[in-house]
Every structure is written in C-alpha cells, then in structure tokens.
Amino acid sequence: MKNLLTLFVLPVFLMASQVNPSFAGEKEKDIPKLQNPVSVSYIKENLTKSKPRMVFNQQLVEDLKEKIKTDPVIGNLYEAIRLDAYEILDLPVMKRVKTSNAMLEISREMLRRVNMLGVVYLVERDQTILERIDREVLATCRFSDWNPPVYLDTGEISMAVALALDWTCDQLPETTIRTAKRP
Question: Would you say 113 and 148 are in contact if contact means Cβ atoms under 8 Å apart?
C-alpha cells in the first residue's frame, strides 16, 4: 500500500512543483495576504444573542420538531438519535484515558455523546438528558488536560463543550458554566 501511494503522490508532487518553480524562492512581501472579513466588531454586531446559535437556531429546532412528526424519514432518524442518547445514560461518564500520544477515541466519543444528547435536549427539553450533559461537561472539564500536543484532541473536546453550553440554552447550572468557561 505504501508503495502504491508513492506511485501516485510522488508524480503529483513533482508536477505541482514544476507549475511555479519560482514559488519556493519568492519573498514574503511578494505573496499577497488574505483579508479576513470576520472581525471582532462584525461578530459583536451579527452574533445571535439567543441560543442555540451553533449549528441550530430556534427556528431550525422548531422546523425539526415539525418534521419529526410529519416526515417518516426524519422521524426515524430522530428516533435512532434518541435511542442512542438514552443508551448513553447507562454508560459511565467520560474519563481521560490516553493509550497513545493521542486520545482521539475519547475526544470523538465526547463529541458523539454531546451531539446525541444535545439534539434530544433541543427537541424534548428532558431534564434527565440535561443532567447527563451536565455530568459529561463537568467530567471532561476536570480532565488534567485535553492533550494539547494533539490539536484534534483539544479541538474536538472544545467543540463538544461549546456545543453542550450552546445547545442547553443556558439551562446548565451556573457552576458548570463557570467551570467550562474557566481559562
């Protein structure tokens, strides 16, 4: 497999390097800089104040609730998510287990749990689901670290916590919110 990959990657790399042979020697000042249209002021002016605002908004949640009732495909998909969320209730909360340099299995499981639990909470506002999200966030925030040398570990856990904070629409206890937002 490695040799097969080399057969394809090496020729592509060589062709690409010949397209602009002067690229490697260009000075930094000659390379145009991209302008980021999103600034702090843009975010402050345009960020929705109400939650949820990450992936979902209140209108999308209401539309989803309606489609769950009227569209059998959406209804079946939601039921599968719902069953998964309720199975998570029987599992122990996340623990920081690092079996190699990365702990991707932990970060991805946390992200999966928050996705399943969070969608069900948005639709049903079930207190049991909210309490489990709270326990997962607290457990994760109590890890000694989120393995910063592996940006995917840190990024996925950060995303999971951010989604949990957003999708619970400020219904988590204040102590959890403070714990999750601590520097």
Answer: no
CATH architecture of 52-181: Alpha/alpha barrel (1.50)
Q: What is the DSSP string of 5-50?
A: HHHHHHHHHHHHHHH-TTGGG--GGGSPPPP-S--HHHHHHHS-SS
Tell me the C-alpha to C-alpha distance, in Å, between residue 52 and each of 13, 94, 137, 159, 182.
Answer: 44, 24, 17, 14, 21
Which residues are within 8 A (CB) of 114 and not within 5 positions of it... i.e. 6 or more apart? 133, 136, 160, 161, 163, 164, 167
Instruction: Give me the residue spans of the domains in the chain.
Output: 2-45, 52-181
- Residues of the chain scoring pLDDT < 50: 1-23
CA distance 82 to 129: 10
Token representation of residue 168: 């619970």
Quick one: pLDDT at residue 47? 79
